What does this fold into?
Amino acid sequence: MKTKIIKLNNKVDTKKFERKIWIYKSIIYKRTKFILEDNVKNINYSSVIEALNIKNRIKRINYIYDKACSEIDEYNKIKHIDCEFKNGKCMNQHNTKRINGCCRLCRLQSSHGCTSQNITCKLFFCDQLEKKYKTIKFNDIKILKCLSLTNRIIVRDNYFETKENFLRTLYLNSIIVFSIKVVINIIKNGVYLHKIRKNITKENGG
Ligand code: SF4
Ligand code: SF4
It folds into this structure.
């Protein structure tokens, strides 16, 4: 296997590198191992290099997904970003009857939070939270640049989905499949909410 040294010493280098990622992950570099030499010690770029060195497409997508999720979690932990949950109610719900924050309309919610690991949801922050904290943005997560344009669009918009199905959609890399899955998820959530409302009515003797 050939090797290619990637030198990132300043912002100009990193911008140039980001513009070339699509070609580095193409068939041309299938048998090339990338080695990072950087003076701008940036952990985000080492994970990008790691992703480029995974030559199997499915394994690379899995790695990108997990790495991006852990970067978001790590950022939230370091910056102490907090939805201020009290008795199941987030800061937006303290004076309402609603519970479970922005997961309240999703079939994947539980009393312990999300039963899956959805990257789109992890990147959602309501206005109130945005006002209080400097939250991480899609473009801050450099490793997402290793995804195709279609998959980057999917990552921005694929709420209410399990991690397993999310990854399957990314493997297929198709906007048409993604759109069909969005409609299916809306129907599944509708059925879930209908059942919940029916149970509440029964419990109240209605
Ligand atoms: S992002 Fe906003 S609405 Fe969603 S759980 Fe946090 S505080 Fe609540
Ligand atoms: S998939 Fe998203 S909306 Fe649904 S429970 Fe998980 S985080 Fe909440």
Remarks:
- The first strand starts at residue 2 and ends at 8.
- The pocket of iron/sulfur cluster (ligand 1) is lined by residues 83, 90-92, 101-102, 125-126, 128-129 (CB under 6 Å).
- The first helix runs from residue 11 to 24.
- The mean pLDDT is 92.
